[in-house]
Design goal:
Blueprint lengths: L4 H11 L6 E3 L6 H14 L1 E6 L7 H12 L2 E6 L2 E5 L3 H5 L10
Parallel strand pairs: 1-2
Antiparallel strand pairs: 2-4, 3-4
Length: 103
């Protein structure tokens, strides 16, 4: 799944008002952190992640690593905050329509 520019722009606009749900702390990209992120992506699809200062990797590298580990897409990286997206078709089936799906 690769996002188009228009889709990415819609997701960036939607993510603007979100607060970071997942925080990468001193333990880095641990299995428990990846499980939390995977759970957040499953229930919300669009998740902001705050990368701690202790993380040795560059923010863009950490974002790519998180996206790869969770089969998601990097929407944007601003400073030490990244936004990830992974579609969950079950959410649509349950009647939850996402605003960014209007494209």
């Amino acid at each position: 799944m690769t996002l188009t520019g228009k889709e990415r722009a819609g997701l960036r606009a939607e993510a603007h008002h979100l607060t970071a749900t997942v925080h990468v702390g001193q333990h880095g990209l641990s299995p428990s952190l990846l499980a939390s992120l995977d759970d957040a992506l499953r229930t919300r699809e669009l998740v902001k992640v705050q990368l701690g200062r202790q993380l040795e990797a560059k923010p863009k590298d950490a974002a790519r690593e998180l996206a790869h580990a969770t089969s998601s897409e990097v929407v944007q990286v601003i400073g030490r905050t990244t936004t990830l997206y992974r579609e969950n078709p079950d959410l649509r089936r349950n009647g939850v329509e996402r605003p960014w799906r209007v494209w």
